[in-house]
Amino acid sequence: MKAHLTSINDIAKALGVSASTVSRALKDHPDISEATREKIKAFAEKVNYRPNALALSLKKQVSRTIGIVVPEIVHHFFSSIISGIEDIAYSKGYRVMICQSNEDLAREQMNVQALLDHRVDGLLVCLSKSTNDFNHFLSVYRSGIPMVFFDRVCKEIDTDRVITDDFNGARLITSHLINSGCRRILHLGTHPQLHIGQERLQGYLQALNDHKVTPIPELILRCDTPAEVHARKDELVKLAKSIDGIFAVNDSTAVAAMQILRNEGFSIPRDISIAGFGDDPIADMIDPQLTTLEQQGYQMGQEAMNLLLERLIDKQDITESRVKIFQPELKIRKTTRAMAMK
Amino acid sequence: MKAHLTSINDIAKALGVSASTVSRALKDHPDISEATREKIKAFAEKVNYRPNALALSLKKQVSRTIGIVVPEIVHHFFSSIISGIEDIAYSKGYRVMICQSNEDLAREQMNVQALLDHRVDGLLVCLSKSTNDFNHFLSVYRSGIPMVFFDRVCKEIDTDRVITDDFNGARLITSHLINSGCRRILHLGTHPQLHIGQERLQGYLQALNDHKVTPIPELILRCDTPAEVHARKDELVKLAKSIDGIFAVNDSTAVAAMQILRNEGFSIPRDISIAGFGDDPIADMIDPQLTTLEQQGYQMGQEAMNLLLERLIDKQDITESRVKIFQPELKIRKTTRAMAMK
DNA sequence: GTGAAAGCGCTAACAT
DNA sequence: ATGTTAGCGCTTTCAC
């Protein structure tokens, strides 16, 4: 029993004028006489009139709504990005529709479709881990709807992107581990099709190379969530005896590994140094505090939205696609040893 | 240069039939001949036709979209609730629009308005901390749009609600503190206008009373974020000497307090026991692991969406408003001492 | 079995 | 200064 919300037609009938007069009066069109305008505005106010955004979008062919697709809202990094996006969006009169892919390709495809069905003006997306087919994005691209990827981007499509310098971050933090004395560093990495995973792995390898440390294939594992760490506990504990450092692809994985190792009697960082990626809030709440790389989630979100807005508002046909790279900042805390002199 | 997406009219023109025929064919209306139907469907498939959700909503006067207003997406409890909501919503063909109030009344009002403008079929809301005026919700209520409050509810309006038994949870965990030997328990509470804050405070007081422990007014502070804990560090440290337990209104506040106390040389739980509320993921990642109360966020979200759906779909005029109460479960971990015998 | 017409709420070009 | 008309994309009643 949803009550009928007052429409412009209702006002027109009630006041004995035409709908167009009401429409014009409400937006201060100069043609409308002072008297009529006041009368209409007063009435609209009284009945609490609000324009129907759906009708407006249909008419104008512009929804002033943008769609966001992220893997999972629960992660601090993603929710920070969303906040950054929203703050810019709101300030420009845009709304956002947020969808979670739950790291699942099928759901991601559904999300994109639903967003298109709702005629969003643009799309902001971060790929799911399992996305190995890009046709759903390709068709968005072909249809000419502006789209900006952030963090986990799609190299296969030439769009604007906002990313972290994953390679450099990984190289930086791995160097720090080496400089503080580590030589056998376990890397807990993510899915190989994920660009960021590749970059972080390459950065890790580059750092080893920089320091003439021989990489050890057995020390590169795919293991990127606390759940997986726990599932592979035995393997990890076995490896632990032969390693002196861990570089995990994200903080929660690093923390989970640390918990297990400490329970097994290893001292952090004395026996094993640990480093993460992302600077999740847990990183400085745990003891010892986690050495990691700070990612500017909020700012990345702002930047992504700004890139999209430039295509939406200025419409100046920007032909080249732009890439904004954020440098992650090394946060040396307590899970790694102080730098030894070189 | 957003490309024009194919409409039913486009298909009609291309195929030399009327729009109504296309519409009917696409939804398998029995009147349409096999041949025409196949022809239309094949063409629609080819041009990747998708119905315009905006036009549909306008026509049907139903958007199959529900609006969510939460304080901040970054908190695990809220994002879990959102996941619960979404999973149920999707399974029933509903979309969600998520808005953050950022604990700000003005933004909450704007959010509600924007959601109504978009003609959401229903609203799911958790109040901001600063909300002391309920007119925006009152007008939703009067307009007959179904609305369900969760967690931080609005007592002033008679709607469906999904809540945690905050009183009982607080009583339970405070009792646990007392049973394990605490007598001077500091309560770090939240804003007084927040119902959940009142309930948790009352539960705390009830437990003291149950155990004939005299409440001490100086040990009841309003301090509900890590930032505030740090801002009031000196006060906290000064109090620390005279207390033997802390019950914080949420886990992040409890953890922040623990960090400060440990840095000051207090041993947890030997000198001071600490308990939180909510069972945030950090609770079992920190060392010592935090004793707290588990809140069923995901299930609460599911329940809230189900209550809303009953009003949306079944439409059976449910007159009485329903209240679902979730019992929080005590998670005794390492920041409190083992129970002493009674 | 298919089409024409009206209407959801709104705007804008075109009357008057 | 105001009204009429058409149309955004879609559905549905009423014709034939």
Number of domains of chain A: 3
Q: Assign the CATH architecture of the largest domain in chain A.
A: 3-Layer(aba) Sandwich
Number of strands of chain A: 12
Q: Largest protein interface?
A: A-B, 54 and 53 residues
Globular, elongated, flat, extended or rod-shaped: what is the shape of chain A? elongated
Arrangement of strands in the largest sheet of chain A: 2-1-3-4-5-11
Spatial separation of the terminal alpha carbons of chain A:
75 Å
Largest sheet entry of chain A? 6 strands, parallel
CATH class of the largest domain in chain A: Alpha Beta
Structure classification of chain A: alpha/beta
Helix and strand element order of chain A: HHHHEHEHEHEEHEHEHHEHEEHEE
- What is the name of the CATH topology of the largest domain in chain A? Rossmann fold
Note down, in words, how this protein is organized.
The structure is a homodimer of 342-residue chains. Chain A contains 13 helices and 12 strands. Chain A has 342 residues and is of the alpha/beta class. Chain A has 3 domains: 8-51, no CATH class; 63-164 and 297-326, Response regulator (Rossmann fold), CATH 3.40.50; 166-294, Rossmann fold. A 6-stranded parallel β-sheet of chain A has the order 2-1-3-4-5-11, with helices on both faces. A 4-stranded parallel β-sheet of chain A has the order 7-6-8-9. Chain A has a two-stranded antiparallel ribbon with strand order 10-12. In chain A, strand 3, helix 7 and strand 4 form a beta-alpha-beta unit. In chain A, helix 8 runs parallel beside helix 9. The longest helix of chain A is centred in the C-terminal third of the chain and has 18 residues, at 297-314. Chain A is elongated and about 85 Å long.
